[in-house]
Amino acid sequence: MPAAEESYGINKVVDNICRISPDLLADVCQHVLTYLQGQKRGVDSAEISDRFQRAEVRLDHEALQDMIRFLLLTFRSAGKSNISGDELVSKLEEGSTKWTKASLQVLHKLWSEYGVSVHTQQEAQAMLSIGQLVDMQWKLGMAVSSDTCRSLNSPFVCLLLKIVEPSGQICQRSFEMTIPQFQNFYKQFKEMAAVMETV
Q1: Nearest 5 degrees, angle CA 195-CA 177-CA 164?
Q2: Contact 103/74 with Cβ under 8 angstroms?
Q3: Confidence (pTM)
Q4: Are 16 and 9 contacting, i.e. CB atoms less than 8 angstroms apart?
Q5: Quick one: pLDDT at residue 1?
Q6: What is the edge-to-edge ordering of all strands in the sheet holding 170-178?
Q7: CA-to-CA distance for 189 and 168, rounded, in angstroms?
Q8: What single-letter DSSP state applies at residue 40?
Q9: What is the DSSP letter of 1?
Q10: 39 — pLDDT class (breaks 50, 70, 90)
Q11: Burial class of residue 159 (count of CB atoms within 10 Å of its CB; 0-12, 13-18, 19+)
């Protein structure tokens, strides 16, 4: 039963894609492909929605979001697999029998034109992918003694970083610094913040 529900969901999205004109589909695909090439920070669904309204296409917000997500997933997975326009069309036809020839032609043409640059961008992102800092906690401590020294009385700062890995998993990293190390760390963070404000 879940396969039937999934197939229904895909067919519904494909129906919506095939309802719109080839020019409008090309416009939506351009937005998605521009983002996947790293030329935009995201896909502006409000701009696409305005374009739909100007073309007098009635599509609710959720259906539009589903269409954008479907195209993102389709082009992203095609980029990762580095497939041709013909292979993309074959895979789409395997997934749903609802495709119109005109819609498939648009997808084939655009993927043949932009597929290589999407693939290149995805490879670069994979090589450069680093975690994203989501939380940082710190505490000041005092090392009183150790197994080699009876009386340390040395202050330290303990940092706990929460990082979202490119895979989506959250990991924690902790480390300790002496007060001079922490002051240098703080100075570098201030410099980074100043540079970021100018961008």
Answers
A1: 60
A2: no
A3: 0.63
A4: no
A5: 29
A6: 132-143, 154-164, 170-178
A7: 25
A8: S
A9: -
A10: confident
A11: middle
